[in-house]
Each structure stands twice: as structure tokens, then as C-alpha cells.
Protein 1
Amino acid sequence: MNMEPLLIAGGRVIDPASGLERELDVLLRDGQVAELTAPGILKAHGRALVNARGCIVAPGLIDLHVHLREPGQAHKETIATGTAAAAAGGFAAVCAMPNTSPVNDSAEITQWMQAPERRALVRLFPIAAATVGSLGEKLTQFAALKKAGAVAVSDDGKPILDDKLMRDALRAGARLNLPVVQHAEDSRHTAGCSMNHGPTSFRLGLRGMPNSAESDIVRRDIAFARETKSHIHVAHISTAAALDAVRQAKKAGIRVTAEVTPHHFTLTDENIGEFDTQYKMNPPLRSAADRDAMIEGLADGTIDAIATDHAPHAFHEKQVEFERAAFGIIGLESALPIAITVLHHHFKLPLWRIIELLSSGPARVFGLQGLGTLAPGTHADVTIFDPAKKWTYDASQSKSKSRNTPYDGWSFTGRVVATIVGGKVVYES
Amino acid sequence: MNGHPRSLLGTDQLTVAEINAILRLARRMDPKRPPQLLRGKRVVLLFYEPSTRTRTSFEFAAKALGATTTLITATSSSIEKGESLIDTGWTVTSLGADAIVMRHPNSGAPYLLSRYIPVPVINAGDGLHQHPSQALLDALTITSHKRKLEGLRVLIVGDVFHSRVARSNALLLSKFGAEVVFCGPPDLVPDVSATIAPGVIACHDLDAALHGADVVMSLRIQKERLAGKQISLEEYIAKFQITPQRMKQARPDAIVMHPGPIVRGLELANEVADGPQSCVHEQVAKGVKTRMAILATVLKAAP
């Protein structure tokens, strides 16, 4: 990669991985972070310049959980449009779930997704299916998938319920240092459910998913991870009980990690109001107590990463009867602004913690080498944002193909200024 | 995203004044000598689920007031061909509907429809959620026997979890300061049901619940819904059937109601269903008057 050097000048660098928080200029060269120096020492002349005055300069953000819908569901999203939304949201890397059509359960599809023809604007790391067709019957070829570029395996959306199969998946993952990602939901107890179980589901006459459907599976998976000495990653954790299980397991030294979505730390099931499907997701929005527990888990270190679960759907898939509507919302462009607005400005979490949850945290979870840090010699992925900029989110302007978000019209404080991947500016506001 | 301002979607969205106005109008309606308030209006009955009394009742009510009605059912229309609810709503509106009366198996379906089409929607029952016209006709029935709703002890017995009638009634009665007691086995009357409105309690002991009741409202039990539950049919009958013996716990002037259809020999003993305290037939008759009042109100044709 021979590219013109790029100087990011005048900003405040926050790099949690190297414990750095101070005013520094950053020089990117040959796709790597070349130098971090005191402001004004490096001269711009002869180099491209990004003015970061008043801004935070952070490692390129990483999203562990997105659905880019390719192959097979290009009417919802493509790898090109989804990664354009990622860039606009400050994400320099995304990990794409395998519930495509066909399911990404092979090295061929894993490679196809990463091919230059897909025109990904940011780094794309496939998460391959853990079982063939995500049918929960037979494990996929983990070694071949890893070789093809998969960073984890998961049957996201179709939890692995069979005990033996889950143990086998964890053992196979452990041999290859490949995390197994579980969408923790005991679907035997959630059939026909379209939201969280509680007063709101009773009022609306909708069947509700009990918290235990999540926490029971998380507890089981933790026990299996201990037994098999493997790494279990809990996708989009949403209940206080599951979070507490993760907290205890971490104390006991078990290799468990967890991510939470912006919607699970900002919204509750009451937001559904009168059947608004923009608030229908899986796991469902939970109670205020669960939401508050997520904030606590973000603050105390139990949660390793904020992930969006970006799940684009077309109008006709979402604007239907609540029980028939697709689960999920888009989230790439709103995640960082929500985190800054809610976690930093409201709950007073330091910015470095938010950046950790969006960069070095996720890099560690999936073992993404040379990412999630601004240490010299690592990949030149940088996210620059203005933490004080006030703006209003307009979903109609989204780079995503879909518009399904409950955050349309929300006022945010904090906005992405530029996203740089491998030394190249892929988004500038 | 709030829909037509005069849509009737749920009893929780009505004020006490609005409910009283509908009840007053309903009392004045005479199906034998109806005022031609809806002459020239087109009312579409959009039924995605089978119904006898609600559909017929709305149809008689609309026709009595001079409106033209058309019935669209899921199996005899484009719905079967996979047309979306919003598209069906637009089709019906474009054909000239002035109001849509909808029955649908999914909770919330009328809310979706009303957000996208410009004519009022009347919810004739949506999933497990609400059945506001039933709650209004029940209120009309109760108030023809009791001076006022405030302070009454209204017992709702049976499968509360699956009942849109229970939800609509509890939400309406609570607004008037009535005490609502949901009663049935824990599977069908979960504790969370008491959170629906102020003054609502959940109880699993029928004899205790009946004590001092002014109104005993029995709900239909669908046998298939007891399948897989902890309670058997025999046990349900033994513990929760309303019998003449049990009715002695209630106030002597208590009335017995049922939204129908009654499953004979299950929820109500025949002596109670057909006895002097039963208002079951009166409810059906009041259904037409109530729906005349609802249609007149929604179509802004009240005299």
C-alpha cells in the first residue's frame, strides 16, 4: 500500500490500548500509524492534512456484530451500502454475521464476501456459521473457515441449544483460537413471542420472551466454556441476570466476553408504545432495570464491547402487523453518537471507556491483530469525532439501504468528523 | 404516526367524557326506528378472523343508520393472495370507504392500519389485545342495572391472558374507579395482569374473589388453550365454573355477563347462564345500539 502520508493535526488522541490521552498529532504512512508527536512538530507541507482541532482522534472503531445481507438479500443491504453506513458511523471494521442467503457456512462464501468486487468501504471480517446451514446439526469446517478469513463462528439468530453440539463447537473453536458467538435465547421458551415479557407485553396482548430464556443459555454456555477451556462470546446481552452470570464468570477466570447494543442500554420495552415495530428486535428491549444493568456493566468493565447488531430491513418487512414484522434495526450510524450522548454526557462515562468499548475492546474479543489501537506500526485506522457537536439524526439520509431505526429525529451530541481505513479517508462529514 | 383522530382503537385511548357520550348516544338509539344518520356512507367490514355477533352487530348497526356495508374476509379477497394490510387499507379507502371496522388475529393490527390510511378505523377485536366495542356495550349493560360504575366490584373470570375483552373492560372500568378482579388459574391469570390499570387485582381463588361482587363477567375458555397448562379441564370446572352455589358469595343483586360464545358446561353452569341474574342476551341486544353509537360518533354523524 503506497499512499500519500496523512497528518491528523490538532486533535486530542485517546488510545485506551496504550493508555494514551493527550493532544498529539498523528502521522499515517504506508497504511500504518507512523508517529505520534507533540502538536505542531510535524509540518503539514507535502502531506495531506486532516484538521482535528477540537476533536477526539481515536483508533478506528470496530463493530463485532452487523448483518450486511449479502449474499442473497440485497434489497435490504449490500456489503457496499452497509460498509458505507459503517464508515459514516465511524466504524473502520465490521464483523458480518452469517445469516445470509445462502448461510455463510463455507470458505467460498467467506471469501466471496471479502472479494474486492463487493466494494467494502471498511474492513470486513466474516463470522462464519458454526453449523452447516445454521441448522444446528453438524459443525462446519472451522479450520477452513478461519483460513478463509472468518474471525469467529456463530449461528446468530438460531441459537445452538443442543448441549453436545455446543460443547463440540467450543472445543473445536478452542483448538483454533476461534471464539464461538452465541445469540443466547432458549427458543423453546420464546415461540410466538415478539417482545419482552412484562407489563407492556400483557397490556399489548403480545406474547413475551422471559429473561430466563437468555440467562439460562448464558449460564449453560459459561459452564461449557469452563469445562472445555474455550472462549464463549455472548452476543447482544440484554438481561441483568445474564450480565451478572458473565460478571461472576469473569471473576472466576472463565473466558467469556460480552457485547451490548446501543438500543439495549438506551431503550426499554415501554418504548414500543402502540405497536411501533421500530422497537421490535431480538433480543427484545427489556425492562428499565435490565437497561440500567447494561449501563452498570458498561461502566464496571463486565461488558467488553458495544456492537450495533445492524439489521437492515425493507419497509414492507417492517411496516406490517407487529407479530409478523422482522426483528432488528439499523445501527451503524447512530451507535457512536448514542454512546457519547447517553454514556458520556448523561452517565458521565469517560470518553476513553467509550472508545475502549468500540475499539480495543472488540479487537481483543475477536483477536484482531493491529487494530483497535493507535500504537505506531499498527494499521492506520482512525476515527475522528467531535464530542460536543450537536446534530439531529435524519434516517432518510442514511447510507444504509434501509431506514428501520427508532432513533430517527433524535438529537445527539457528538458526531463523526472522519473515518480513516488503512491510511485512506473513507468518510468525511 | 397517530392515525385518524376519531379512530376507535382501544378503551385506554378514550376519556371518561368520550365514553359517557357514546353510552348516552347508545341509550337513545332504537334499532327499530333508527335515525338515518349515515345515509350515503360506506362502511367496510374487514374481517381477518371469523366472528358471528360482532360482525353481524356492526353490520346491522351500520345498515340501520342508513350506511352501505361491504364485508371483506381474509379468504375471499386479495388478502389470501398475500396483499399487505397497508395495501388492503389503501385499496378499500380508494374504493370510497368512509370507515373501516376491522377484526384481526394480530394484536395491534388496527393501530398499524390507522397510521397509514386517512379514514377512521374501528377495532372490532385485535388478537389478544383489545375489543373496545365489547367493553362499551358491557358498560352500557352494567349501567342499565347499576347506578354508576364507580365503586363497583367487577369480577372477570377465566382466560384473562388470552382475552381482549378482559383487557378492554379492565382499562375502561378502571377509568371510572371500579375495582376489577381478574380471577382464574395462574396460567391464565398471571400476576402481571394486575399491572394493566390502577385498581386491578389478580386472584386465583374464585370464592374469595366472588365475595361482594356486583358484576360477574365470565370469559370463554378455549379447551385447546388449557393444553399443556398445569390445570386440566375437570379441575378448571371444579375450581372456576360459576355455579348457583358460588353465586351466593356475590351480592344478591349481582349480574352475570359473558361476551359469548358460551361453551356450555364449562365456564358457566346452565342455571347461571340462563338464570335471572344473567344479562347475556341483553349484552347482545345492547351490542347493536352501542355500535350504532360508535359508528355515528366515529363518522361524526351524532345527532
Protein 2
Amino acid sequence: MSPGTRILEVRQNVLKKNDLLARALRQRFRDAGVFVASMVSSPGSGKTTLLEKTLTLLRPEFRVAALVGDLATENDSLRLARSGAPVRQITTGTLCHLEAAMVETALEGWNLAGLDFLFIENVGNLVCPSSYDLGEDIRLVLMSVTEGEDKPLKYPTIFNSADVAVITKMDLAAAAEFDLAAACRNVEAVRPGMQVVKVSAKTGEGMDAWLDLFKSRRAAMKRA
Amino acid sequence: MHELSIAMSIVDLAQEESRSRGGLRINAVHLRLGALSGVVRDALLSSYEMACHDTPLAGSQLIIEDVPGMVYCPACAASRPVRTSEWFCCSVCGAVASRIVQGKELELVSLEVEE
């Protein structure tokens, strides 16, 4: 330390603002009785396809909505809107992840109490979203069978920050020579005990278990 | 790469702190950075310079203290260092150990300010 200077103690989390906002959002979601799930993955892992199918299948029984983050274009929100559910696009410009403030802004004017489920699709990125709490009840990390079994080992931080791992495009598993046991071992290595769900949005394989995941977690939240 | 966003949050927080204490000139910012925080040290250092540009923190230094990752081993009932973030197990007995007790830090510890 150079002469003429002194130390001021701060001791604050750098992402304090985001964390506080996320906490407030979580409380708002809880008060409104809406269960919030966020999805993270690399680009092209099938988030939007799976989400479109999920919204469509949940809609007869539940009131669902989605927020979708991308750097640019409204393509994903247009695709998701085909499900009939209310959808809003968050375009981040050059930012590689969603932050709690963007979620808060995107929710403006929405009656949360009129929803059972809200899905938040993050920007396709397995690195940056891990640091930002969005106030979600559950964070899902997706990997598709075409990406290779070692995704969890390459991106341990995001797998460690998520609650459930989802293996997508299971209909292509044989063609991609996907080693499911190896993938599960790798998930277990970076996040021991993590639940793994296998789905194909295309064929419907595993979709019942996938939907049950949300229904049961929401029911548990309601009881709490 | 989200280090630029993180660096901008550091600059904002440092400015707020200095303003609330009378607008002191900041020469250096001390940060604790966890090995499991998902933030890359070198990328953060170069982003910091960019984030400081055109702010009262221009020319200030970011001083990083690395915090190693630690997990709790239920078998040993003790905290153990994580050798690699690819394998969350106890470095002593090898048991699975997933509860992170240290290493996610992204903490602005202190500011060096002019008297």
C-alpha cells in the first residue's frame, strides 16, 4: 500500500444487487403461487423445442407462461408462442446471460397470480448463467446426446449450480453412439446425487416423467 | 464470457461505497475470488481495466486473493480441499463430497483510498 492511502473495509458480495433482486423475485413468485423453472444449456441443445412441447402439454391443465432470453431475434418467442401460452422475449444485446433485473422488467404488467408455471429459458451458454440467481425454484441444465458425454466435466460450475440435469434428443442416442452410463457418471462426479431426466421432445420419450417433475415440485411448494 | 459484467458490478459497488463515505479517490480494489465461482481471474483483470474506463476508478488496480475450493466430506466429518472441480470427492478418503463450503466467493473485501 502506498503512503497517503488507507484501507476501507467493504466485505460485500459483488453480485449483491442481483442476489437481493432474485430473492425479492422468489418471494413474489411464492406469494403468487407460481412455480418457476429456469433452463440453461449450450446453444442448440434443444431448449426451445423441449419448452414448446412442455408448454403445449401442460396447457390443458395448467396456466403456463415463458420468458426466453437471446442475444438477438424474436425467433424463439415466436416458436414458443405456437403453444398458445403467453411468451415474452428478452433480447440481451451482447450480454451472454440473463440477470434478475431483466426478468423483473420482462414481467411488468403480468399477473403472476394468474399463473401456475413460469419457465425462463436462459441465453444458450454453459458458463455465464451460473453466477446469476434469477429467483427460480428449480434450475435445469440441459445437454443433448449429440454434445458428448463429458459436458458436465467440461462445465462443472453450471452443473453444480443446477438442480436437475436433463439429457435431450434421446431419439438420436443410438445414431450419436451416446453412452448414457458415462454421461450419468459424469453428472454424478460434478454433482453427486443430482437427478437426471432423459427426454425426447420429438418422440415424447420420457415426457411423462419430465412433466411429473414440475407437477410434483409445484405440489410440494404449495404444501410448504 | 461474463467477466466484463462482473467487472462492471465491481466498479459500481466500489463507486457506491466510496460515494457513501464522502467520495474518496480509489487507488485499488481488493477482491476475494473463489476457485469455483465460474469467474476467470485473467479475464476479470483485463475486463476490469475496460470497466474502469471513463469512471473515477480509471487507473486503479484490482488486487485478487484466490480462494481455494473446499467441500464437506460426510465420511470424515471435515472440510477438505477440492483438487479439481471435475470431481467432487474427499481428497483424503475419496468419498463423494458435493457440499461446497468454500470457493464460490466473489467478494469485494476492501478499497484502498487516498487520505
Protein 3
Amino acid sequence: MEPSDKDQDLLSQELALKAVKAIGPGGPEPETAEETFWHSCRNFLRGWQRRHREASRHGQRPVLFVFSTMQLPDSVRPTAAKAPAFKIACPLKIGGKLYVCNENLREVREERIGFKDELEPLRFLEKEGLIACTAIVFLPEQDALLLHECNANLDDAVRLELGAVSRQPFKFKDLDGYLTKFYRQYVETHNGACDVWAKARERKLKPYAERQIQRSLKGFFDLTIAGQGAKIDQEIMTSFGRSDVRVLAYKDPMNWEQAIMELKVLQSSPDAKEWALEGIEQLLGYRLEHEKQTVACYLCCYDARSMDVDIPEVVSAAARHSFEHRRYFMKTPGTGMRG
Amino acid sequence: MDAIRRAGLLEVESLKFHRLQFFSNSLAPIYKTKPPVELVMKLERGPFYPDAQEDIDMLCVCGLASVRQVKWHAKGDRVWKTATYGLTAVGFEFASQLMKESLWCEDIATFMHDLVMAYSDLSDDVLDIVALKDVTYAQKGVSIGDVIPFTTDRNLSVRATSAIAAMLPQGYEPNRRNQLRIYLKYLEQLAA
């Protein structure tokens, strides 16, 4: 149904803009229940970090958050007692406890287990037959998380740094540094947090490596700059197609600045150059649509080719359009040598 | 009821149950689903859907839903019932099975899931009020006892969600889940 001018009279513009600011414009396609749970936990823990002083947080034991799409919280752990929803409550003392929750943490059931170290919650999942649940182990002492996906091997739990709470607002000039940090922690070596290699020694990537990097980068931003007030969108629909990752900073509900990142994984084939140049064409389209709001466009090339060398045509094309070109060489055993 | 349970509401009182019915009818076009009823009668205590009431009572008889705190009320020559409803473990299993086996059920469940999640994310203080602030329900010139049809262009709630989307700069269209969330958030602001 196309809105008419008269439809604007249905609404209070001011309150509608407030609602848009609270939820955000655009955004990714609907998430899975597991992703919603993960986002809810992250938001809760961010709030918990902000609300309680470091000294009282850091002495606490690991915490385990568990969610299942197949079972209700009370069936997952019948011995866990009903607790106030994390939407309302933000108790200081969460250390050593198991929390069985629904995906938006409105239903919370708690049980004191007394986990001693970071591996104990994972062992607990195995011992108690909870491997099929999505689980997050929060390590208050380290401001870090271990993420266990449902039915995954416990050894594959991904560690993520929640980071200290920042009181500094997000600045676009810092974005480059965060991209570098992501590279170092996630993809620089085959042992990084984002495991994109099917056969690292042969430099053979997994089928959806680009998508995997995109999701990891979004997760990384969620854990870092989102805490400074930036909003992160993934695969934003624009009339020019989809941009990979977008970082927004609002001044007011309808007044924002943005940086757009187009991610490309380069592989050892003659198409690598065309693939990267296509990214530049995409960035041109996105920028054209929101020229005023766009403060930076990054072409991030995650380089899985065998040689660590720039592609001159890509470098010059990016420079011609004032795009930030970043090429991140992904090292594997036997490579990492500059060509 | 499955969506209500998954959104962590555990149980809902009659009032909330019928308010959610109203939203699921009025906002269904956002998900391109056909609602069972495209009208609401404006009553003092808020939206009420007799067929849905019968359905939920039937689910309770079958053991798929639970009921407690059943109370009868009377005012003048009018009588009505209130209760608190929940989904039983058997009901949860059954709903999960339906979603697996029927594409139609899966589509409806997606809409209901997103709607109730958006609703349950609102402040507890306004959960009973937001439906009364809905632009269809609260439109001018409608008195208590009037029937409000909201077929196609008369569905002001959907028109309001489109109007909010039109306020955004070109190229940024909220996805349908966001449309629900933004609209209910807007109603929350009105109700606050």
C-alpha cells in the first residue's frame, strides 16, 4: 500500500522519529532465533558492564547462558528457578550461575552451579546433555565470551572479546584501526577466530568464506564500536543492491553519518582483479545514493591468493574515487611471504 | 500461543490475548498474510474476538493450552469472562510439529513470532495500553460499540507503518520485522 501525504497526519512525526531511532532504519533480514538470543545476551552483558563497577564485576566466576529452539526453558532445565526477566533486572551477582532463557531474555530461569574456570561451563553442557542448545559462556574476569552453536563440537566454541566499556563516543576516524584489529584477531592467520579455510595448507577456502567474514566482522563491530554508540547494519538493501556492512552514527533520528564497507575475498584466479573492481563499482552506487551522509567507503579485500601483492588497477581505481582500499593478506602455513 | 510462549510471556490474561489478536489481524498485511478477521468492535475494555475466545477455550479442553484464574464479570445486563492462558508442553510440541509439516503454518508462525517478540520487547507498563493507542483502533469519529473494519485501504495501522517507512531517506526500507518493531515502539511512545 503506497502511503499518501495524508497518511503522515496519522502519526506524530516526533514520536515516529524516536521509534525509528530506537529500532534503527533498514537493517538485516530477520535473524534466526539463535542470533536473536546471541544479540540479546550481548546487549544484556553490555548493559551489565555499564551498570556495575569493574571491581565488583571482575571477581566473578563464569556464567552460562543457554537457549533452545526445540524446548521451552523450563523443560531444558527443570531444576532452574524462575528469575526476573533481564529486560527489567540487571543483578550484579551472576557469577557461577546457569541461566536458561528464551531468545529475548524475557523468560529467565537460574540455577547456581558454581563454575570454577572457563572450561567448566562447556563440560557442564556435555555432562548435562545440553549440547543441542545454543550457549554463551560469559567470563566476567576477562570481559570475554565463548559462543557454542547448537549441536556443534565443544572444541569449536568461538571466543569473542566483549571488551571494556567505553565512555568515548564512536568516531569514524577510528574505524580503520578496528578493521586492522579485526584482521589481526580473525583472519590474519589460519588459526584466527574466523576459520575460513577448508584446507589451509593448500589455501583452499570454505565455500562461503566471504559471507563468513562478513558475519564475523559484523559480530566484531557489535562487540566493539556498538558499545560506543555506533549502529551496525549488514547487507543493507539499497537501490544499487546490497552493501556488505554499514556503520552508522546518529546525530538525531534522521541525521546520521555512515561508512560503508564492501568485502571481497580474492582467490588465485584470473577473476580476482574483476571481483575487486566490481566492489568499487558497488561502492560508487552506494555512495551516490547517500553522498551527504557517507563519510568513508572501504573496499576491504581479504586476500586468499598465494602471493601477498597489491593489484595495481584496483589500487588506482580506489584512489581515483577516494575510496579506502585495504588488502588483508590471509596467511596459512607455508605462506605469508611478501611477493 | 506458541509465539506468546516463545517470546517469554509465559501466560497471557484475556485482555492481552485479545489485544494480540487485534494486532495479528490488523498488521497481517505487512507479512502478506490474510487475517481471519478484518474488523474490530470498539469496546470499553478493548478489542475482543469471540471466535478466538472459543478457539482458545477449545485448546484448553484439548489440553494444548492451560487456563487458570477464570472469573466471570457482570455489568448491567452484560456478562463476560476473563482468564489467564498458557501453552502446555503438549501444545508446544504440537505447534512445533505443525510448523515443521506445513508451510502455511510456518509462514503464520513467522509473523506471529515477530509480532509477539516486538510486543514483548515493549515496557511492561504499556503492554495493556498500546492496542488502545493503535491508529486504527483510536481513529477519530469512532465511538464505543462501533465496528471498525480495516480491509485494504481502511487499515490505518498498515498505512501508518508505510508512512513511517516513507519518512526514511530513499533506499532505506525497513524490513517487515523492523516495520512491526518500529510501529509498536511508536505506540509505546504514545502510551507512555
Protein 4
Amino acid sequence: MRPIALLLAALAGSLLPASPAHAALLVDPTGGTTVTFDDLDEGSSGPLDLEFAFNFFGTSYSQLYINTNGNLTFGGSNPGGLNPRLGVDVTFPLVAPFYDDLVVGPSGSVSYLSTPGRFVVTWDKLNIFLGPTEAVTAQAVLSADGTVFFSYGDILGSDGEVTIGIGNGLTGSNARFATLADFLGTSPDGTLSNSQLSLLNSASSYALVPEPKTAVAVVGLGIVGVALYRRRRRPEGRSRSRPTASAL
Amino acid sequence: MLRKFFRGSLLALSTSVFAAQAPAFAQSFTLTVLHSNDGETRLLDAGGTQTLYGGVDHFATLVRNLRTAASNCAANQGVVLISSGDNFLAGAQFNASLTLPVDQRYYDTVALDLIGFTASAIGNHEFDFGPDVTARFIAGFGVNNPSPVFVSANLDVTAEPALLALAQRRQIARSAIVRVCNRRVGIVGATTPLLPAISSPRNVVADPNLVGNIQAEVNRLQRNGANIVILTSHLQSVSEDLALIPQLRGIDIAISGGGSDLLNTPAPDAKPLVPGDSTLTSITYTVPGNPPTTITNPTYPIVLGGADSKPVRVITTDGNYKYVGSLNATFDTLGEITSIDTARSGPFRVSSNSSDPDAVPAADDVKTQVVDPVQAAVAALAANVIASSQVPLDARNANVRTRETNLGNLVADSLLLRSTVLAPGFGVQPATVAIQNSGGIRGNTLYLSTATPVTPSDFTELNTFDIAAFTNFVSIVPDLPRSQFKEILENAVSRFPTADGRFPQVAGFCMVFDPAGTAQVTLDNGTVTTPGSRVQEVKLANGTFVVQNGALVSGNPIGIATNDFSARGGDQYPFRGLPFTTLGITYQQGLRDFVQQNLGGQITEVQYPSTGVATRILRTPASCP
């Protein structure tokens, strides 16, 4: 149940010339490869190759599955729409920017951009099953250094509860996961109710790191840790964003 | 590319609008819950005097007929098919599955997959052969229909790799949401916390906190839009469910498994039962903190209030594929039951009796893929000679329940010697002695009655199933205090001269008892209220006395090999809850393996002389050799 890593960065917007509809996303998905699913409701696509080795909770992955319901998985497809509680429900290793009972409707799409440095998946204008249409736009960016970034466009609701976070899919003492709980005051298991979705307004993007050295170190680092982490990662010669974010 | 993420100004979600979106249902919804429990690999027919009933191929036809009649999403009528566990069981029929190549699915899996279950509880018998067999049973689903979700809110399977893999694929979960005609229906499971004591779950953990675990799942299902919630449990008796329901909120329907409890809808909608069956006449249950409650002549469904005072419909039926339970419930837009159609509810019997108006034909696919090959396999067991016996083997009740018999010795030896082989693999010390209750030696016959040393008879594998007919598992109770060992033996001979199933057949020791001594009186919980004085001598195979001249001889505790029925206190054997380890094989398998591997396929007169020659269970004034 313990989060092993959560670093929140109210990250700068993408330098890419995003279309207005995708302005809040870190990476403009325009030009990405549209994912085709066997089932637009409870579907999965993959395995898809990564152009880098992605180290996720101690395991290096070269492939992943993109699932309709707002999540990526490693090791197997995950078409189910009932969002798990991280650390409580067994899953494949999971990246879930917005795990809910989603449907790729007529106006919706899921696409990915793949480079040697990052893999970007965007769930764009997905419907909620038995709920509002064009309700969810969410993006996950997997970077070659292991960091996962979440960012969001319009979020018009959920089926009642959504899961946001990353996890190794195990439970109990073997569970390793990171959620937004420490920053948003939401449930430690990564679930957010409809009424809590408005908390996502407080920042534009979230960086979650699956592998800090220890959980204690992360908790202790706090805000300074965020700054150090970001500074360490920043390539030389680049301008810095502010070391602390508004959400901090 | 990543550096781009850190440039520029902060952006916030500026246009998001959050609003709870409760699905609006304009119309009522009728859900038919078809259910069964405790199929227990009775695939061919119901057996005994009920061979014209049951049969999983006929069961399949009836399910399909009922499902077709109740499914019409255009009219807001949907169906789920849910099992309450114990989907397979050891025995001659399941042995047909165990002998299949590893890449083939168990017959039980094929049958249930062809029928198409929505979800299933996980029963205790699913673990009788250990978690790897459980995993193979579940992994085979999803070929003919979508795999059911095997639900249990209180089981943690993560320490078993094969089950963990199934949980990752969501074939095993604490709960599930299924969609029925665009309605979300939540299904949560529960498994008896007795699991470690009555089966072999190895590293699977059964949390005894049923209320907490189930309620957490119900809450979660409701949060995710399921306003119809079904509990499917395997708690061994409907009385356990009745004790549980008043402590839970948000459940609409509870399906009970494990008890083979038969309920019927009241007249005029009572359904015809299988001849020989009868419904429960009363049920007594105890909600913690309350006095016992008795329901007299309970009907289908039993209705009682949850912790939220919401009426919960509790349903169950008898097992062995004899019935398809059906609850036809209409829900309002908020997921509350507004009516039950009793004409369409109740236990629908599975009949192949052509004289019954409700007889149904066998489903061809299930018959050809399951029933026919299993039938052939059982026939093959009868043709599989595993030993040659020079002697008839005595299972006549008048003998095996009052004295040592050669078959009793054979079965007891198989417990002792096969447990010795298996013990290291389960991390336990081999036992010193073995006790087999004679009630577990079946047939009431003299097997191979014509056998002689000159003209030995064939001992077949089917004989082992007939002799060791129960799903009892070879077990070891370690470190039994000598005083308790004597109490167990006193209980075993306490009913003599009555031919009682508690009379022992033994290995690894000799005992002498005095029929004139005081018979021990033991309560069901193993408490001895009247000490016995019949056991006069107990001498281990190494010559050590445990009892001599009726007195206990002090010494080290003793490890006992037995079957799990006795270890759990069956026949009032006063083990009194001592921990024991089941070794993953039934005593039938132990008998088969012993005869083949330890005896080399030869049952000799020298080793197992005919009845009348006693060396293990003697009566005073005899002494142990």
C-alpha cells in the first residue's frame, strides 16, 4: 500500500506546437500512430515495441500493451474496464494515467508516438461507458530514464471511480506503486472519485518515478527532492523551469 | 525530446468540467441469475439411484434453454450464470482429467467453458490437489466462451505463481463487474476461511475477515457504477451465508455454495425435484452477537435483511449437476429488487428420464467432448489392472469395522508409506504410525473373492476408487502427545462391538483392546467426557510401548499419518484442532501408488493374509507380538 515514489512536477508545457485541443498535453499527439483495437470498448493492442529499454520497478521492458481503458501494461494485455486499486488488486505492471471504463467512440482515438527517447500514448476524447461522450483526454509519456509523465486534456467525469498511478501489479508487501495521493489527498490506492477529479486542475502534469532507491528516501526528499531530481535530469545548456511547481 | 517537458510556462487544466455521471436507466431491468454449485465432477450422471438425473451434458441443455428463454436485452431482460464453487472433485471421473497430457484442458473445464459461465466462486475442493491443479483448471477457460471470473474477496493468491498469472489476466479477482444488457452487475466472491484445514491451498491465504473483505468489494463495485451486486460464496453451508448477510450492506442476491442445501419455491410454483431429494426442513444460523435463529421450511429464495435493512435474496441448490437454480428478479432504475417471478425461479432439475415432462436431451458438444471420453476413461479404470492379488480383500462392514482385515492393513500401510515418501516435499517429518477410519473403506464386500495364491485375481484401478471412495487426502498430524494418541485409539474402539466407521485400521503399531473396558465418550469437538479404559497395549513397530497394561508410557510425541477427514475430527477423533498437513494426494491415489510402487503390483497372502489372522489389532488377553 505504500507509494514508493511520487514526484510531482507542474511541468512546463510542451514545446511542440500543440493544437488548441491538445494544449494541456505534454506532447502534441498529432501525427502519431493510431492504435487499432480488437474491441473499441474492452480492447487491447500489442505487444508494441519500444525503441528503448524501459526500466519499470526493476524490470526492463521492450514491449507494452495499449489498452482502451486508459492504461498501458507490461507482460500482457489488459482489456478490462474495472479500474484496480493499486497494491490491492493484482494486475500486470501498469501505467494508468486515467484507468476507467472507457470506450473509443466515433470521435475518440488512441495513438502513440515512438522515438528512441520516449513513448507517448494519448487517449483522446474517449467516451465513458454508459456515461458522457468525448469525456476523457489523457496522456502517458514513458521516458528512457524510467520516468512516467501524465498530463490531461478535458476530463468530464468517470464511471464513478478512476485509477491514476503506476504500479508493479503486486499486492501486500510486494506491492510497488506510485499515485497522486500525497499531493491530492486522494486514496493511497490510486483511486479518485468523480468529486476528486477536479483536484487535477491544480497542475498540468505529473511525473512518477517507478524506482527511487528507497521509499523512505523519496518521502524524505519532499519538495527538495523534486527540485534535485529535475535539476539532475536537465540537460546542460537548457533553460530551467522553476524549481518548484505551483502545486508544491 | 524529454527536455522539452521542462521548458516554457506552467499550464494547468483550465477547461475541465467535472460532474458525476450516474447512468440513467429509463426502465426496469429483469435479471435472471442462473446458478449451480458443487458440481464436483459428477459429469456422467447423479449416481446412486439417480442415474436418470444430472449429467453435465443434460445440465448444459437445460442451462441453454433457460438462458435463451430469459435473454432479451431489447426488453431489458438479461441473464448471468454463476457457480458457487467446488467445480471439481477427486474421484474416478476427475482422474480422467488428471491423466490428460499437460497441454489439454480438464474435462470439467471444457464442460463449463462450453456452457459459458459468467463468474464462479472459488471453493475448497478447487485446491484439493494443490494450487497448480487449480490454476490449470482455471487457465483452460476462455476457449469456447469468455472465461468466467473466479472471484474471492478473501483469498490472496499472489504467492502462487500460476495463480498470480491468472489474476494478472483477471481470470481470478476479488470481484468483477459484468455488463448485462448495458447494466453493470457487480459480482463478489468469498471462500471459506477453513480452506487451509480442509484442502491443500499451499501458499494461498484465506483471510477469515469475510465481512471486511466482502464489504470493501461491494463498496468498490458500487463506486464503479454497479448498482446490482451479487455475492457468490463457498462457505460450506447456507447457514454461514445467513449469518453473514446481516453484517453486509449493498448486496442484492447471495448465492451460497458448499452445502448442497436444496430450497424450492413455494406452491403453486414449487418445482419437481429429483426423486429421492428433499428440501431443507430448517436452517439455524447465528449472527455474531445475537442468539441463534431458526428458519423452518425455508423456501427459494430466503429473504433476510442486510446491515442496511435492504432485503437480500439468498439462494442455493443441490450439487452434482442435478439442478439449475434460477432467480428471476426485476430491478428498478436504482438497482433495487421490485419483484421476484417465482414461476420462473427455483431449482430446475436436470432430468434425462424420458418419462419426465421436463426431461432434456444431452447437449451434443458437451457429450462428445466431455461425457463420452470420461465414460470411456472410467471404463478404462476398470480395465486397468494395477496388481495381482493372491487373496480376497475384505471390506465387509461387519469385519472391517470391528477387526483388523487385510484390506484395512493394505490401506493403512498405504497411508504410512506413501506419506513417508511425500512428507519431505511438504516440509514435514514422516509419520511413525497410520490410522485409517474403517468408514472410509467402502464397498461392504469381499473384493476379489475368488483370489487364491494359485489363481490370483486382477486388482484394478477402479477397485482403488471403489475402496477409497471419498475425497479424503493423505495427511500427517505431527507431534501428537501420547496421551492424546491413546484418546484417539480409545475413541476408535469405543463403539465396539457395533460395526462403526470409527473403528481403526492401523499401520506402524500393534494395539490390544479390552472390549469389556470402559468405552470412551467423546463430544463432537473432541472433548473427552468419559475416559476410556479399553486400550490396554500399544506397541510401536520399533518395539516401543506407548501403552502397557493399560497405562500410558511416557515418551516422545508421535506423528500420525491419516486422512484429513479424521484429522479434522471426523468420527469424533479427538485431534481437537491440532495442525496437520495434507500431502496433495487422495487416499485412493495413495492406495494405487502403494500397490504399484511399494508392492510392485503383488498383493501376497504372506503379507496380507485373509481375515482371521491378526497381528495389529488384538483383543485381550492377547499381546502384541
